[in-house]
Amino acid sequence: MSNSEADTPYIRPNFQNVPFWNPTKILDHEIGKHIHRMDLNECPYPPSPEVIAAMHSVAHTLNRYPDGTCPELTPLVAERLGVPQETITWGGGSTQLLTSIAEISVAPGQNLVAPNLVWKRFQGVYKIVDANVTAVPNRADGSIDVEALTNAIGNDTRLLICVTPNNPTGMMLSEDEIRHVSENTPENVLLFMDEAYHEFAIHAGGPNALEILKDRKGPWAVTRTFSKAYALAGVRLGYAICSSPEIVDAIRMVSSTFNLNGMAEAAAMAAWNQPEYTQFILDKNAEERARVEAGLRDMGYEPMQSVTNFVSCDIGRPGMEVVAAMRERGVRISTVGGDEFANYIRLSMGIPEDTDAFLKELREVLK
Ligand SMILES: Cc1ncc(COP(=O)(O)O)c(C=O)c1O
Question: If you measure from the C-alpha of residue 228 to the centroid of ligand 1, how many angstroms do you get, rounded to a whole number?
Fold first, then answer.
């Protein structure tokens, strides 16, 4: 049922008719069954025993509010990234930071510029800030058109959003493209790079957007996360590296003081100090991605050039129908979104057994 503004005048117009969709919901027919969960770009491997032990070790402190500035983790991250500690802030997943970054820069009605095809959550961010959004079409292959993006910046633009590698395409920007965005975004516009899949880009030999943005004269913010390459999606910890402490303070102001959970910092420190486990996750991911791509090609389909833990592919018929049929068969995958990509599916990499199940069931569904 849809509400009109007259029915719910106590809800702001931008939040009218926004039905909640729960991505993690387990359907009745899935309860108690083994499900191949390949729809949310999660890491299929659990946190390491050391990370679990670190969480145990702080469990007895959970009656207290944690220090959301992560005072022990921040120096470690700052040192490895070569940035001042005061330019790092933390969020309940980088999802929280996306909203906070938009909130601190764009007032209702002001303009933000973003690629049309980006992670679906950005649609929610646009509603929250009630911005005037210039959605710049992606190129026909799904990649971000950086020239069109910076050409779309107007006098009223306050924020430019870029995602590399991007979700749902899995494609990354080249060093030259990131430099183009950095150099052609004016100094009165906050340049925001979502690098949730940064570790995967580096593993694939790609550029480090943060390093390139460090040369930028104007303001910038880069977000990264412990959810993907560090196997900690359930802990909800992401971070923003910003061009100045003023941006950090503004983000903290809108993200609330007690926005982290009390085990996140200990878990993340243990994961950060165990690069060999991250390497294992990235290596295994690349192996399964190669198997998924080969399997799709074998069926006559050409997947997008992903460097991430997910792959999107044109399967020549409505993605929504295929996603529903696969879910009936115990394999959860997702659509890509956007009318021009209606015939695409997206799946996250799992363990080898998930890849086997995906390829087997897809062959059946597409018969
Ligand atoms: C592009 C992108 N950014 C950010 C996120 C959010 O990750 P988290 O909130 O777990 O840090 C995701 C999650 O899938 C994503 O795909």
Answer: 8
